[in-house]
């Protein structure tokens, strides 16, 4: 009766001598199913603090910049803040030179506003500047084609996804998107937007098979800095605190460019750098 015990001991010793070890159970997070992009329009001054709040939590967003307006008044960020946002891991995209109304401007002005904005951002050192957001009612077949001609890889509109104002809208943008120059989003966050409203956009995507949930922000402040399109700072901060740990369940925050490229890239969020 001792022989089986001896054989087991010999086999165990052989494994140890050969360097074999047991394989630990993986604790890695599941592959992402729901991608969330936090996007910011206009280059408003409140975006800098929002970006730093994101950086502190290892998150990155996409900031659509009207390059001709940066530093023109205290309403907008100065260029050094835009640089710091990019250095902290977020994406910089275009939003026309002067936040032009592309639905009423003449063809020459429209082309100049869209293309020159990208060229300005590239000349400022940002790269690849692959995303564009149409200001206001500026999304049309003409501007979609122009965004492509100017070198953008994506064009983001406003609306078209599930939110409190459109509960019958699709839960999420498809991956890959049906039309990369007509990306759909939830309704822009505003003064009346609650944390529950923002969470509902994301959880609705999660419970409907995942996909791409794109949120739109203008002002992030408590003084109506962008009138009705201003979301409370506490609401935004609470969203970040709620979002960050959801990666463990397969919901991740990525920039528009990262998701458009397949979503596999993990944002490289770097420490804040101060310029003087």
TrEMBL record:
Signal peptide: 1-28
Record bears the keyword Signal: yes
Record-linked Gene3D superfamilies: Glycoside hydrolase/deacetylase
The keyword Signal belongs to this UniProt entry's keyword annotation: yes
Entry-linked InterPro entries: Glyco_hydro/deAcase_b/a-brl, NODB_dom, Polysacch_Deacetylase
Record's keyword terms, sorted: Signal
Domain of life per record: Bacteria
Biological processes, Gene Ontology terms: carbohydrate metabolic process
Ranges where the NodB homology domain occurs: 30-153
A GO term for molecular function: hydrolase activity, acting on carbon-nitrogen (but not peptide) bonds
PANTHER family (UniProt xref): CHITOOLIGOSACCHARIDE DEACETYLASE, PTHR34216
Protein's name in the database: Polysaccharide deacetylase
Organism this protein belongs to: Pseudonocardia hierapolitana
Lineage of origin: Bacteria, Bacillati, Actinomycetota, Actinomycetes, Pseudonocardiales
